[in-house]
Amino acid sequence: MQHNNPVSSPPSPLAEHPPSGAYRVVVGMLPLWGLLLMLAMLNYPLISRDLWTDEAYTVSYTVHPTMSALLEDVRKNEETPPLYFMSVWLWSRAFGTSEVAIRVLSVIYGAGAVLGFAAFIRQRLSPDAAVVAVVLMAASPLFQRYLTEARGYTMTVLLTVACITAFERLYQRPESRLAQVIYALSAVVLFLTSYFGAALLAAQWLISLSLLRAPATRRRRIVGWVGVQMIIVACLLPWLPSLRYQMFISPAVTSDWGSGLRDYYFLILGVLMGGVLLGGVRFLIGWLMAAAAGLILILAAAQGGRAMNGFVVRSLVLPAAMLLLMVVMIQVVATRYLIVILPGSAIAAGVGFVALRSYRPWLAWTMLALLVGGMLLARVITTPVDVPGAWGRLIARMTAEVDPAGDIVLFHPPWDQRIFEYYYHGPQLPMAGAHNYDDFYYNQGYVIRKTWTVAEAEPVIVGHRRVWVFYDQLHYQARALDLPYQQLGHWSEGRLELFLYDVPPR
Description:
Number of strands: 5
Strand content: 5-15%
Helix content: 55-70%
Strand order of the largest sheet: 2-1-3-5-4
Structural class: mainly alpha
């Protein structure tokens, strides 16, 4: 006698044993654990280090008495939208403009990103996938690198999380007016914080078109879709003239510092690990192993089932494709641009870990261990590249004997002028450098990759009795200026040097 027993279906790749009560409590407090992990991994000494060039520009915008003056300064010197700088301007009114005060704002934005990410992801992923995703997000060297920098990268991560959350709500309820408005506003603030947010927004725009296919709801959804686009355009319209100007001067004030196709290889590997670890072959090998393990976990998300695949496509696959297209088009390759796909990368890695564990548990745990180990390695070997207080000490040395009537200060590279202006508190001095990028590189015609040449520097120096030269090798590899003058003095603080030359009369 035959029995028609039902055929059992294969287990889902994301199937898990029901979590224990204690584990459910842990997952319920995932935002708190994520925040504590982020703070535990934070490199606190970096918060008080000297400003570097881009940070000095950030802080310099806070001196303007009005927001309109700030926006004009941003327009002249940044290839970046203004929202982060506006927030710094407001923050400085309450907390000052010290290195620590300004960088703490980035830590706060980062904390908000981790809290928001964890709260959102624990509702969308299985408990184990959510835990892995939050750990990787909070500990990622790509994220940790910018927690201690006075630039808008952690604000970009926060708004990326907000935009993904708002779009998922809109994707589930495309006819909800509230969901439409919230998403439109989240898209606006993301774009006004980072132009590379356009990669995520372009991917979401393409996905939103798929929601218009059903004939029964097409008319209502088209009306809502058009409304979302109108809100976005209306909010961005006031900034478009400044964006046009930034694009117009961009060839003069930016440069490709890359090394060819090799950069794209490291860029793809760095979606979770960030930039290559410096310090020798062993650190490079450790970074490569960790980065490859992270990429394997991300690729394993393809086995996560239809629902998870769709989520990963919306949060990572399409945005990453749009980002790669942007990078190739503008030919500027830098790991920091990956910040807009970091939340999606963490989501994919969490989904991929659980999916891979269902088939190859040993491989899943090995890849996760390699990745987390690489993140810990990055934290251990990350040390300040400059001597704390170097600018202040060299400026104090110069201030003790500078002659405002006969001396000139030259900055090499030229874009360090605003660092000097931040730390210098003496009498007004003639200065040779790039106070404004558009004036120096676009209007005056200097070439950004050449910094200064002797032929360019001499006409600026002529007419002064002495020239002080700040030569900064903390973050750059500019060749020293071989000025044809008698050297009167030389002082150094690590890789920051100060030269004094006697200029013969002509």
